[in-house]
Amino acid sequence: MSQANRGVVYMGPGKVEVQSIPFPELALGKRKCQHGVILKVMTTNICGSDQHMVRGRTTAPEGLVLGHEITGEVIECGRDVEFIKVGDIVSVPFNIACGRCRNCKEGRTGICLNVNPSRPGAAYGYVDMGGWVGGQTEYVMAPYADFNLLKFPDREQAIEKIQDLTLLSDIFPTGYHGCVTAGVGPGSTVYIAGAGPVGLAAAVSAQLLGAACVIVGDMIPERLEQARSFGCETLDLRQDTPMADMLEPILGEREVDAAVDAVGFEARCHGHDHSHEQPAAVLNACMDVTRAGGQIGIPGLYVTEDPGAESKAAKHGNLSMRLGLGWAKSHSFHTGQCPVMKYHRQLMQAILFDKVRIADAVNVEVISLDDAPRGYADFDGGAAKKFVLDPHGSVTA
Fold it and tell me: What is the DSSP string of 204-237?
């Protein structure tokens, strides 16, 4: 099979272009990939992690085809694919996992040992994550299909709920993972740092897990308004008021049971001087406002190399973290990529049975593939939206 294909390509800091790219093949280098499938991409989303690369805050090479949040229709299967069929509509976890290594067998699919020669773990269209072609495209190849792909049980229902289901490839499981690793449960009080799409997905996840009060902090008023739209309390972090002082009127106390860092390494100072970057600001704030013995989930991205950092230490991922405070309060920290397959089937069920409206919570806006540069620019400007690309016009149709 050979035909036209187009994708969103990183062209250097601040610039992406939609270009013609090769049509995918069932191949890994010079050998056949008989365990893979080729997908016609139905939806593919712009992620905050993509934005880090486009801002020039990673070592991503120019020419990288972007995109790791993929939902698609199977149009070709390799010889060894047994359970996924042509015509299936599937969610593609952003983690690429072999299903055979020790970590995969333990459910740690975010750190598969066989899909990236440089380090554990791989992802589509992402720097240092194995060189896999991204999915902000019309067509893409997905390997290890039987293991990786989540098939939606009913085609018509999947199309009807595609704006929710598209979020299963990354941000919904990632937000949920942040809450699970922070120990969120029935009756919890929870602080979510960041009201971008992952932060909002974490806030919805905390509600789904039974939290009594979910508090979201951010510096962008429109994003805070979006958090309030589904029942969250909010903290405007442009204020100089200490966070504990802002929590007290909401909770009657100055600490929460659990905290989630959905910001990551481009964090800024809390208060009027929020133009200044302080990469460990969120981690330190979470320790400050989390009760002794509490847990902190860290789905926000931290990198080993940040060429755009303000300090020499931060350029290499070295942060001024108050670990002594966390030690004194017996905090537990959980970092790293979300193992999407650990959660995506359960979260799919929550969507299909109308237990959660994740697309409304993160304010999905569907745009065309050609409109991707505008989506990146608006997202970089702090838009309170989750941009979903519709490469074939199938969603809008």
Answer: HHHHHTT-SEEEEEES-HHHHHHHHTTT-EEEET
